Amino acid sequence: MTALTLPQLKFDRATILRGVAAGSAWGVTVSAALLGLMLHQCGTICLGQILDTAALSITAGIIAIGPVAMLRR
Asked: How many domains does the chain have?
């Protein structure tokens, strides 16, 4: 019986770029959805909210979605 093996990641430039691009795209999409929700509920959006939401969403996307995108072959 063989043990569960993890796929070998090759951290070349294209793989890292794919992870960052996928995470950033996810973050931009989530931040746009959250900002649309805030606009609908409050009627206005402050510049500080836009910057905070976008920065946190893109960072979370790179950390959470990036490694998943790097597993693609």
From this structure: 1
- The answer to whether the beta carbons of residues 27 and 58 sit under 8 Å apart is yes
Span 36-51, pLDDT tens digits: 988 888 888 788 888 8
43: left (phi over 0), alpha (psi -120 to 50) or beta: left
Tell me, yes or no, whether 45 lies in a domain: yes
The overall longest dimension of the chain from CA atoms, in Å, is 60
Q: Is residue 2 part of a domain?
A: no
Cα(25)–Cα(28) distance, integer angstroms: 5
Q: Give the number of other Cβ atoms within 10 Å of residue 34's Cβ.
A: 16
Q: Is residue 8 part of a domain?
A: no
